[in-house]
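pinging the channel bc i need a second pair of eyes. not urgent but kinda urgent?? the chain im working w is below, pasted from the shared doc
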Amino acid sequence: MTAAETLDVVVRALAVVAAFLLLPLLVGQTEHKVMAHMQGRLGPMYAGGFHGWAQLVADGVKFVQKEDVVPAAADRPVFRLAPAVALVPYLVALSAVPLSDQLVAADLDGGLLFVLAASAVGVLGTLMAGWSSANKYALLGAMRSAAQLLAYEIPLILAASSVAMAAGTLSLIGIAQAWQWWWLAWQAPAALVFLIAGLAELKRPPFDMPLADSELVFGPYTEYTGLRFALFLLAEYAGIVLLSALTAVLFLAGWRGPGPEVLGPVWTLLKTGLVALLVIWVRVSWPRLREDQLQRLSWAVLVPVALGQLVLTAAVIITR
């Protein structure tokens, strides 16, 4: 590699790391404010003065001050490694998500498969946390996480396959470039399935049965404190960023919008932010599902809808 190529790789990597560190924090701060307004929570509106701007800083200080406790019976190496295993896959996956056709860290021909495969690895961190904690509630939460991943990974992949089939490529850039306005209706069922399945894989309410505090204390994260617990929260917000960005690129044309091409990254970020707001709104508005309801939704509703969408996509492609 030449010096210029090496510098280009370094700059792209640093840009991805910067986005990975900043965007999840923005989503976390937004969630504080949206929940405060929608549920009448006064606490998050006071920290730091104007509109509670320092709430995220206060949370960070709180986590830093807490003692890092490891249970005596825990498998210490696995217990300590689990938060990183839950977080890092989202950083890897984010590197292949484009902000525009020119602004992407890794332009891969099979970018969609790469992102879906990398993001699915994050559940291993949850399994490691639950198994290594030597706590029955944590282990039950980890097993629920595994069952939930198996149930919702199938409709997620089927929904993504529909839009990839419509575009005729697995490249994320190629899918966004092939997008047409009438896909909003044509691929709407796939988009809905994709978003619901993504929320379930992130264990976001109302799909947070693995973390059910009334049953399992806090599921696989019960024994975690301080910064290690904060890393699991950061992994959740990073997952929201990845899910929102993927939804924007696959189903909302990514960087394509009114105005000059230079505004492309702005359109991608704006669409990503709107999807993230929808994710937060769902958390505030919907009650938690029971475990049987959660599984039934996947196998009896989402999988048939995703399969039907694949048949519809194939029919439209053949008749065109």
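so The chain has one domain: 3-319. and The first helix runs from residue 3 to 39. — does that match what u expected or am i reading it wrong
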